[in-house]
Structures are given as C-alpha cells and as structure tokens.
Amino acid sequence: MKEYEVIIIGGGPAGMAAALKVNNEGCKALIIEREERLGGILKQCIHDGFGVLKFNERLTGPEYALKYKNIIKNKDIDILLKTFVIEIKKDKDFHIKIINENGIHILKTKTVIFSTGCRERTSKQIFIQGERPAGIYNAGTAQYMTNIMGFMPGKNCIILGSGDIGLIMARRLTLEGAKVLGVYEIKDTPSGLTRNIRQCLYDYDIPLYLSHSITKIFGKERIEAVEISKVNKNYELIENSKKIIKCDTLILSVGLIPENELLEDLGITIDKKTNGAFVDNDFMSVEIPGIFICGNALHVNDLVDYVSESGEIAGKKACEYIKNKKTNNKNTKVDINENFLYIVPQYINENSNDEIIFYFRSKKRFENAKLKIFLDDKIVEKNYNKLIPAEMEKLTIKNIKNKKISMILE
Amino acid sequence: MNIQKLKNKIKKDISYDIDISIQNNALKLEGVVENWEQVIKAGKIAAMSDFDGVINNLKFINQEKENFINTDLKDNKLNNKKYDVIIIGAGIIGCSIARELSKWNIKILVIDKENDIAVHTSSRNDGMIHPGLSPKPGTKKAYYNVLGNKLYEKKSKELNFEFKRTGSLIVFDKWHLKFISPFIKLRAKKNGVYLKYVDKKQINMIEPNIDKNLIGGFLIPSTGIISPYKTTIAYAENAVENGVDISFETFLKDVYKENNEVVYIETNRGRIFTKCLINCAGVHSDEVAEIVGDRFYTIHPRKGEIIILDKKTGNFINSVVSKTDFNLKNNSKGGGIIKTVEENLLLGPNAYEQPYKEDYSTTSKGINEIMNKHSSVLKQINKKDIITYFSGTRASTYKEDFIIKQSSKISNFIHVSGIQSPGIASAPSISEDVEKITINILKSKTNINQNIKYNPNRKGYPILYLLEDKEKNRIINKNPDFGKIVCRCEMISYGEIKSVIHSNIPAITLDAIKRRTRVGMGRCQGGFCTPLLLKIIHEETGIEYEKILKKGLGSNLIFKETKKFGDDFIERI
Questions:
Q1: Does A235 touch chain B (CB under 8 A)?
Q2: How confident is the model at residue A324 (pLDDT cuts 50, 70, 90)?
Q3: Quick one: three-class SS letters along B101-127?
Q4: Is B502 a catalytic residue?
C-alpha cells in the first residue's frame, strides 16, 4: 500500500495550488485527477480575466492552468491521472480506494485535501416541467462541447440564469454564429459578475430579462420551444404573463453544487448555506481532523484567484497538521447576522495566531454597507460602497487569538 | 347492466350526440363531446356492460392529432421475408414473448417503430414486482401477477439481471386500519398472496424512519424490485442470442388476410409474411387491433409521474413503503416510496387520465402532490434530493384488465393488450402463456420442434458497480477500459459503454446506452459525461457527430463541428 502525507483529490486550480504549497512546505503530495489532464474546468474557459488578483495579468483559463502545471511538472509531486476515487475510509489514517486502468488500489494518507469542485444544477432541480428532449445543456457542458470538442450545440438559444458561465456562453455561442434570444433570470438582480453582464451581454446586444423564469419545455425529440413566465419578488408566477418562445437550445446557468458526496460518506455535515463542509480557518473540517477542503468544493467562488488561494491555505495547514501532530482544533463559531448569505470559514481555531482570511457574500444588494466586526469587546468597522450576492468579498483579520468573533452587516 | 339502460345513461350523463353501436362484441361509442373527461366517463360507463370491451372512438373539441410515427424511413429491407411469428412491439411483453418462443425452432421477428428496446412504458415505471394484492380477484391481472412474481428468481438468474425480493410494507393510520384491513386480508387470501399483519412496534423495527403516526400495516414478503429497462433488454438480448430478429423503425401499415387469417403485413420496410401475428404494441395495441380487423377495446393512456431521489436517500428505507389511501375504485397502483435496485428512492407514480398516448410531459401539480404525499410518510425526504422526474403512460382498457387471447376473428392473431400495471410483474407468466397459445396456432399449420441450440442463459456484460473488488480487478486486468470511469455519479466505465455499443442489439443513442448502463442517470444528469459519450459513440461506430442522437429521430445533440475544416470547407476554397 502506497503511503502519502497529503492526498489531494481533484487537480483543478484549488488542487494544483494545494499540491504546490504542500511541496513547498516539504511534505509529499499526491494529486488524484479523474481526467486526462490537470486543470479542471479551467481547460474549457478560453475567455480571459483569470489571474488578475494572483498574477496581475489577464489570463485565459488554459493559460492560468498552464502556469501551475509547468511549475508542478518540475516538483516532486505525484500525479495520478484518469483515476477515480471510489471511497474513503478512516481509522488512524485515511484509506483511499481508487480505480484506474491498473485496477483497484488502496492508498494510505495522513491528510486528505478535497478540491473536488462543483457540478451544475439541472433543469429538474429547479423544477422545470414539460418534456425531456435533446438540446437542454448545462452551461458548463455546452462550454465543454464548444471549446474543447469544437461543436455547435445550438443555433437559436435561450439562456436561463445569469450565472457567469451562462453569460460567458451567451457571448461564446454568439461568436460561433448562434443567435442568443435572451438571458432569463428569476431574480430581480443578475447572478453573475457585473463585468460579465457588460462584456458578454450588452456588448453583443443580448437582452437580459430579470424576474422571469422558464416554466415548461416543449418538443419531443429536440427542444422546440419554452414557456416563459414573469415572476414577482417571491418568485411566484404572475398570471397571464406566459409567453412561448421558439428555440432549439436551452442553456442552463442556474447554480453550482459543491461535489461533497465523498465527504458525506465519511459522515461530514453539509452547511446548507454554502453547500460545503463546516471548516475552521485552517480550512480543516471541524468534524474530522485531517480533512481539508478548498476551492469550489467548499463554497462557490466567483474568481479562480480565490480558489487557488484557498488551496494554498489548505495545503499549508495540512502540512502544519502533520508536523505538529495536532489533534482537534479548538473551534468557535463565527457569529454573523442575517444579512450575510454565508461566511467561510464558519469557525475559527482559538489557538490560531495567523491572520485569518474570510470569504463572504451578502444576502441582498446593499449600497453603502457597513460591516462591524466584534472581537471580544473591540469593534472594527469596514465600509463597502456596494455589496451584491453575485460578488464575493474577502476580508482579512489579524490578532484573533483566543477571541470571540461576531460580525454584523448593515 | 341492461344494454338499453346503459345507452340511456351514457346519453343522459354525457351527451345525446353519442352514437352507440355494437361491433366485434364490444360497445362502440362515436361522436364528439366537449372534453376529455367526458370521453373517459362515457367509456367507463360503457365498460359496465357484459360485452368484451369498449371501442371508444369519441373525440373532443380541440383534440390534437398525435403523431406517433417519427420516421419517414421507407426501404425494402424486410420485403418478402418469411417468418413464423411477428411480434409488434419491443417492450417487456414483446421481448419476453420473443425470448420464450426462441425455445422453438421457428423464425421470429420483433418490430418496433422506435429505434431501441423499452422506449415507452417499459422504461417509464418504477420497476416494482408487485405481489398481486391489488388486482381484483378473478381477473387476468391477479392471475398473471401472482404467477409472474414467483418466476422472477428464475428469470433473473437465467437472464442475468438484478432482482431483489425486498418485501414491501403497506401502512395505515388509525382510520384506514379499521376499515380497510379486513378488505386487504380477504383480497390477499383470494389472490393467493401471503401477508403478515405488523403492529406499530414491528413497523418501527422494519422501517425505523417512517412516520410514527402510522399505527399498523401489512408486510408482504414477496414484493420485489428490478430495473425495468435493463430487464427488458436482458429478455431481448437473450432472444437475439437464440436467433430472434429485431427490426427497429419499423411499423405496421396494413395486413393482408385470407380466410380470416393474416398472410402478410405491410410495413414501411416492406411486405413480411407470417404464420402468426402477436400484438404487444402497448399503448398503441388498439390501433394495431383495428388495422388487423379485430378491435374490441380502446387504450386510454393513464399517466403516472415518478420522482427519482439521490442515492444518498437510499438508507432512509429498506424496501417499498406505501401508505394506503386504498381507494377501492382505483384502477391502478397508488404509488409508494420505492428503493430501487440501485438504491435510489423513487416516489410515485401518481395516476391520471390524459388524452395523448405519448405525452410524457411532467406537471408541477403532479410533482408537488407526489412529494407532499410521500414526505408525510418519510419526513427525511426533501426537495433538494430530487435528481429528476419523468412520466409514463399505462396502457389501460376500459375493462381495466389484461387482454391475453387468440383472436376469435382472425385465427392467427394474438392480443396481448391492456398490459398496464402490474405488467412488469406479470411479464414472465404472460410470456410463457402466450408461448403456448402461439405454439398451438403454429402446430395446427406446420410441424415445429424445439430449438436444440436454445440457451436460456444470457451472459450480459460486466456491471462494474455490482462486482467485488477482486472481480473488478480481474476484469480491468483483462481489459483496462473497465478501469476508466466515464460517468462519475453512477461509476460507469468506458469498458461497459463499449460493450453495450457492440452488444447484439447495439446501443448507439445516448438514451439507449443509458438504459443499458445507467450512464448519465446520476445526480449530475449527464452534465459531465454527455460530451464524452458523444466521442465514444463516434469513435466506436463512426457515426458523424452531427448525426448522433439522444433518443428518437430528430433528437440530434449538436449542429455542426466548428473547429474542423470539413470537406465542404475545402471544396468552397
């Protein structure tokens, strides 16, 4: 049985960053990746805008991935490609059962970093009714087809959801010669980044319809039309607002779900707000020490730079965990008020001396928001001109050791 | 009911414009009424007569014509071929009959208008092997169901499909326990179904998670579960192994008879001679009977919607649980919470009449109702666990019973119609009976013998997730493709997909591969594997990407390749 100090599941931007950090810290890492190449979803993101925070450059997804791949190549990091993790068991160490062309094997490791990313929500998970024809694609699937395989998945497309991938696909399909009839969003605010609304829709005259939803799908074989309805603030359908629009393709960009089934099998609870695990500021699971979670598997990030950053933290902390043979962290929950959509990490390690990075999203749109941070009885205030749920905020706090922390957003 | 009284009742209750006559010993209704509910109501009243059936040709205002035939394919591939038996319909009934008949040294052809096995009702149900409690005593349904249920171990072993005799639990609240329990006991006795009363404490031991207000119920050990599409395919593949021919995208257009006997059928692929014709056309069997000239029934499609929950929920219950709101007038199963062989939970199906036979759209009303009904029994289930939902239509006749008999008018024509729920459970016994009827017909015409090459055992292909690690390793060592996982949610390997593409009934559409392997049936619903499947289908079959289908003709997945300079591009330069 092969043994590792750190096994990283998933070789996307979080996993690669974690592996490099583990290597820098002097530990032995293995990346397990399902696909033939490292890079995860970045491989299909041929648009630019990656790495602005991290590298101060506007890179495409493949360029961003390549930067990491080139460094990893020359390091003593083991990589298993085309390998699928079947199950993980824990006694003193973790035993990871994998399957690949060589058969089934079990690997032993002291720590596991989960950088398994997300899958996309489907039409049924948002309760679209009607028929089940061909031509309904998740935005990521359509992106894979268009960018990696070189296929046109549709000619007359409707896009449901204004998530970033959907917006980017609106532009991408337009550039390939398709007609994007409109982007429909159930909320009264867009879900994607402001820059994507501008660069992907307005620049190409693609209309965005807020407070609209698709209620029914027509077409037995290939999709022929969709029924669109207006909704009110509570997402209830407005009577007599139904409209039928002909199309041959429906692209869905209706949210991502962190892939945490392996974690759940281990008995880890999922935070209903993030759809990821509960972690402390080491990005270590508060329930099972030795398990670290980063990237989109922990919560859905809007920028890849944050994804890599969380991978680095997880990698660094995994090594510290091995070296210090720490047992359970002593954790306290970060109290937040109802104006937060969520905050990550949800807990802080009381003994931690480090500066702590928090990622959070607001529940609704705020102009001139004020964030009050209570550290025991000390109050720190931070002002934001604008907060929107679509855009994640990062917050760094120092000197937190042995302090209770709570935050109020107003 | 007296025929004149019945006529009056129909006219009075529904419409005086309904024309009522008698044809083929059936009551025939014609005319135009206001809506579909009236069509159904008239049919149900007519079914109270002693005639063999109801031919309900009533139309309603604004009724749309449903186009069943999706192919304009016309060739002479089958022209002038001669068969001993032609079976119309490649659902579980058609395929199981073909397989039983392949014991004999005769030439058998199965035709289906679709491009694969089990496209309609056979893949659109919950896969429950009913114990035979629900059908009315004395009906064909009750007879074949109880008998069929018993045959499943044997068939599963021979045909290499998964079957679990999980047992089921019918649970009651206080009111239902008092009133319905004696009725259930009596029916079980009459139908020959063993069941055991269980009290609250025992229920709690069997199914600890279900609602504590359910105070009593019955445990029925004989209930089982299969994958209905995989089982149908297993039957079909074994039939083909034993020499049966299958022709897809082939439909009946006409028949030629002499002396009340079918001589040949006309199809879109030519004229095919046969000594015996078997109607297993499911929801369309009344149309087939009409073409052949012995129609005495009408299929009115009764829709059922089913919800599939994530495998995570599989540990909530152990088998099949249904809370009875046992409606004595209910013609079909009420639905329950069913743990599938793959450990997903299925909720449903519901049951409602709809005019269109192949309208498989789902409704938010239906999905919400199912969810609410079953989450009251099992509190843990949550909308968030829904992976997908689908619907199917039951092939119900107005008499609400199976029709399994040799035609009294056309001597070599066999009706196997009205096979709605519990059709899957009854398939093994129906097919063995139809085998006897068919062989009798053939023996009266010609000398037939046993097929000495008949092999009842289907080998199938490896299903990785069912195997022990040691066995997985052995298969991967022999063929590394089985170690490459394509569908991450259901853990389906490249090797399995290749096997079904090259099986004796090649699976070359996405849904065909899905029905055989479950690829894309998991929580991401094909989000990750759809593009990979396109590539595999293309590489294994040479089908151009633009021509790869999801399901039927016209369900193409992509429009064109953009990055390759194709021949037409070079020509233009």
A1: no
A2: confident
A3: HCCECCCEEEECCCCCCCCCHHHCCCC
A4: no
Cβ–Cβ < 8 Å for B558, B545: yes
- C-alpha B229/C-alpha B248 separation (Å) is 17
The CA distance from A217 to B261, in Å, is: 45
Distance of CA A184 to the CA centre of its chain: 22
CA B485 to chain A, closest CA, distance in angstroms equals 7
Distance from CA of B551 to the nearest CA of A (A): 7
**pLDDT tens for residues A335-393?**
999 999 999 999 998 877 788 999 999 999 999 999 999 988 889 899 999 999 999 99
- Token pair listed for B500: 């079904």
Of A223, A247, A156, A221, residue with least CA distance to B555: A221
Is the backbone of residue B25 left (phi > 0), alpha (psi -120 to 50) or beta? left
Which one of A101, A148, A153 has the shortest CB-CB distance to B480? A101
Q: Smallest CA–CA separation between B336 and chain A, in Å?
A: 20
A37 touches chain B (CB under 8 A): no
Contact B339, B319 (CB under 8 A): yes
DSSP summary character for residue B483: G
Mean pLDDT over each residue of chain A, to the nearest integer? 94
Chains A, B: CB pairs < 8 Å: 132
pTM of the model: 0.95
List B403's β-bridge partners, or say none: B417
CB of A120 less than 8 A from some CB of B = yes
**Residue A269 touches chain B, beta carbons under 8 Å:** no
Q: What is the ipTM of this complex?
A: 0.96
Q: Residue B363: list chain A partners with CB under 8 A.
A: 129
